[in-house]
Fold this sequence. Notes:
GO terms for molecular function: adenosylhomocysteine nucleosidase activity; methylthioadenosine nucleosidase activity. The protein is of the alpha/beta class. Helices cover 34% and strands 30% of the residues.
Amino acid sequence: MKHRILILAAMEIERRLLLEKMRNPSTRLVAPWLEAVDGELDGVAITLVQMGIGKVNAGVATALLLVSQSYDLVVNTGVAGGLVDGLSVGDVVISDELIYHDVDARTFGYALGQVPGMSSSFVSKDSRQLEALLSESGVRDFSLQRGIILSGDQFIAQEADVVKLLHHFPDALAVEMEGAAVAHVASLCSTPFIVIRALSDKANGQAQMSYEEFLELASRRSAQIVRELLNGTKEKNL
């Protein structure tokens, strides 16, 4: 079986919703702390991994998998906090660009969010094509938008933090803790990537309660879009 798509999730619930739909799953140990499950999902060969929360866990897991095997696409699925009024809990954002919001080397002339020596953002070059595939998937009872997703080692749960993020990154739609690290490593490995995030909260003063209440709903929405994406790539023979 040729493994084409690497699917990465931070948390067990995000992984479980896809794992329970896989055919012929086979587990292998990539590292003492990291398992990968190879198999098929909706007729597409995939590897599914729970990488852990935060940028380091995400980056290490992505690197280990991409070094061990070749993939045609990296997909990071999960939840995020929404940053704009036009998005509601349960809506889904797919990445156009990923930016670190907690990297600051501006003293040396770099842009906010830019790791020295790297680009200022990580662009999902196939996002328009993938969005077009998803637009053919039928009617949904939630919104799907493409745009900028921010990442950092912080759970954003205060309105003041949202205001600050939007001051520096006015076009950002969502914020989470892993996507930019996945994109960073995938870029280094010259592997296409897409980050799919359903909103579990609005990253404000109610974020913790909203997150706890809507985590499963948001995870299901993100998993749904992943499966729509897999079916679209299969039908288009991409």
